[in-house]
Design a protein that fits this description.
This protein has about 230 residues and is α+β, with helices and mostly antiparallel strands. The protein contains eight helices and 15 strands. The strands form six sheets. The protein has a three-stranded antiparallel β-sheet with strand order 1-9-8, with helices on one face.
Length: about 230
């Protein structure tokens, strides 16, 4: 259940939010991302497509781990690297043109965490950052959808087979993930390639392809955790 309220300085002057990454809220192996995040994500993790479990629609996501509730970027020292906006937003939502907050979210309180407002009712840098993130997310979701629809129209999305083996004898097979079909990309007519380039989509495509190099690197990170475990 959620209890969404529009954020305002009068009612929520004393509210605080536990904004730091934690296992309770960030232990996710795959999170939806927008195309504006690709340059930040491509240097640390694979960016792949998946299908929404309810609608069947494709979405872009960052692979943060290989199993449910596994996040290889979350350590005892905190988050290592770039934290996707989907997780940064915490208990906040967009309500029309306003910013909403889930008052029943466990991260929301009055004593611990980042304050939303200062002593004089002015917005804190934290709240300003949340507003900026939400303003980026909203149009970003639409741009990401147009990017995906374009790739689908050109038949540039294909399933990816990811099979992993670890030193403790365990094996993993990742299903339900998709990537760029490079053969189909090479076969595109020049006019289609030019259109992708002019729309900024070719750069996004290459970032997704380049991000695949992180699969073995993340597998190595997981392997070290498995072999270090008592």
């Amino acid at each position: 259940m959620t209890n969404i309220a529009i954020v305002n300085a009068h009612t929520h002057r004393d509210l605080h939010v536990k904004a730091k990454a934690s296992p309770a809220f960030d232990a996710k192996h795959f999170v939806a991302v927008i195309v504006a995040e690709f340059p930040l994500l491509a240097v640390q993790c694979p960016i792949l497509f998946s299908k929404d479990a309810e609608t069947g629609a494709f979405l872009c996501g960052a692979v943060l781990g290989f199993q449910q509730n596994e996040n290889l970027f979350l350590t005892q020292e905190g988050w290592q690297g770039y934290r996707p906006l989907t997780l940064q937003r915490g208990p906040f939502y967009t309500v029309g043109d306003d910013l909403g907050i889930d008052l029943d979210d466990a991260r929301v309180g009055r004593d611990v965490g980042e304050p939303l407002f200062g002593a004089n009712g002015e917005m804190t840098p934290y709240l300003k950052g949340i507003i900026a993130a939400m303003q980026e997310l909203r149009p970003g979701l639409e741009r990401t959808k147009r990017f995906i629809d374009t790739l689908l129209g050109l038949k540039l999305i294909e399933p990816i087979d990811i099979s992993l083996s670890f030193d403790d004898g365990s094996q993993l097979q990742l299903d339900g993930l998709y990537t760029i079909d490079r053969d189909a990309l090479r076969a595109l007519p020049d006019a289609a390639v030019l259109d992708l380039f002019r729309r900024g989509y070719m750069q996004l495509i290459y970032l997704m392809i380049a991000s695949l190099k992180h699969i073995p690197l993340m597998a190595e990170r997981k392997n070290k955790r498995l072999t270090a475990a008592p």
